[in-house]
Amino acid sequence: PVIPAVVFILFVLFMPFYVMEARVSDALYSQLEGTSRNIKMITVDEETLAEYGTFTEWSREKCAELINLLSMDEEMAPAVIGMDFLFVSEAGEYVDKELIEACQNAENVVFASNMVYRGDTKQDENGVVYYDSWNVEMVEEPFEGLDTVVSDGFANVHIATDGCVRYTKLTENYDGTEKDSFAYVIYSKYMDAAGQKEVIPQS
């Protein structure tokens, strides 16, 4: 009795079949082609943090300055600017105004929003009670004023039990409406600016 119990515990803890399935799935579906040359990434790295301090201490003027810099030359300006920052509350009249004006002038900025998931007990159309672990309680969106001059999409990352990100949701239902993901909004706006048709991979 002891040995089967130990084996069962080990299977629960280490999930060998899940790991094997995940590795096979990675090998079959991963396409390591790298990022398109049309995509330029400006990251907040260790050198940036060393010079400017932690991001929470930054003024929003820095984001405004970056947006203005990227949009300065109309011919060289990007088709869409994605800012993976969550600004859901006001920080101050002056800095907020600077950011709003920069986004308004650029006309192509996408900011992140955040889906707040809270599990909830629900009942389906047949009266069967079930637990919805993906229930969206609320959406944290860009603060009032910024929300009228930018687009936004949820930037939530879904991490598998082994710590890898293998899938993402392009859209999510909230309060009876579909909300697009951060990546999908950027892609959609880029394809629209390029006059191209969106290509959505089959799940």
Question: What does this molecule look like?
Answer:
Helices cover 34% and strands 18% of the residues. It is of the alpha/beta class. The strands form three sheets. Strands 1, 2, 5 and 6 form a four-stranded mixed beta sheet that branches. Strands 3-4 form a two-stranded antiparallel ribbon. Strands 7-8 form a two-stranded antiparallel sheet. Helix 4 runs parallel beside helix 5. The protein is globular and about 65 Å long. It starts with a helix and ends in a 10-residue tail after the last helix. The mean pLDDT is 85.
The helicity comes to 25-40%
The largest sheet, given as strand count, sense and whether it forms a barrel, is: 4 strands, mixed
What is the succession of H and E elements? HHHHEHEEEEEEEH
Number of helices: 6
The fraction of residues in strands falls at 15-25%
Overall average pLDDT: 85
Q: What is the total tally of β strands?
A: 8
Low-confidence stretches: none
Radius of gyration: 21 Å
> How many angstroms separate the termini?
43 Å
Structural class: alpha/beta
Outline: globular
